[in-house]
Amino acid sequence: MSGDLRICFVGDSFVQGIGDPEYRGWVGRVLGKTGTDITAFNLGIRRNTSDDVRRRCWAEVEPRFLPEADNRLVLSFGSNDAVEENGAVRVAHPRTLDNLSALLAEARHRAIRPLVVGPPPVVDAGAEHLRRTTELATAMSALTRSLDVGFIDITTLLADDPVWAEEVRAGDGAHPGSGGYRRLADLILGGGWREWIARP
């Protein structure tokens, strides 16, 4: 295995770390506790759906990887897909799953090892959004399992987390502060991240 470990994190505002006064989000915190020399690229964009991620992923990832490196891809999206606008969700569940499946298939074709982090809940979006997001996370988990791809399910755990909820309500209604991102990072670290990193 190459000693050059490169990871692209592609997703939405939670990947980007919006709301964190320390500007680390969960990505910076996870990397800080990984204890491995990693070249990392945060490619999160606010309001991105799975449609957006699928459209831009390879154009942004390809220049950051090297053929001889150990190239990895972390995908995290879905919260924006499940948001209702003008009487309809932004991206219906079947298309989200199709986007995820296509991204994972292309990663396999390119010999890039992927990991999927489930969609965080959006507190201000209400109970129906949480229901949709939870259903989506369950379907994403089943899809990744069928493809032998790691999936870290954080949706319901964060929905029940008082620190996450308190910081989101004190902020913009969607994004936490440093404490909430720390909780999310801990869930990822304990949910299979270290095993994924260790496996060639």
Which terms summarize this structure?
single chain; alpha/beta; Rossmann fold; 5-stranded parallel β-sheet; 7 strands; 48% helix; 16% strand
Word description of this protein:
The N and C termini lie close together (6 Å). The protein has one domain: SGNH hydrolase (Rossmann fold). β4 and β5 form a beta hairpin. It has eight helices and seven strands, in the order βααβαβββαβαβααα. The chain has helices at residues 13-16, 25-32, 50-61, 93-109, 126-146, 155-159, 162-170, 178-198; strands at 5-11, 38-44, 70-76, 84-85, 88-89, 113-117, 150-152.
Summarize the structure.
The protein is α/β, with parallel strands linked by helices. It is 48% helix and 16% strand.
What's the structural blueprint in terms of helices and strands?
Blueprint lengths: L4 E7 L1 H4 L8 H8 L5 E7 L5 H12 L8 E7 L7 E2 L2 E2 L3 H17 L3 E5 L8 H21 L3 E3 L2 H5 L2 H9 L7 H21 L2
Parallel strand pairs: 1-2, 1-3, 3-6, 6-7
Antiparallel strand pairs: 4-5
Helix pairs in contact: 2-8, 3-4, 4-5, 7-8
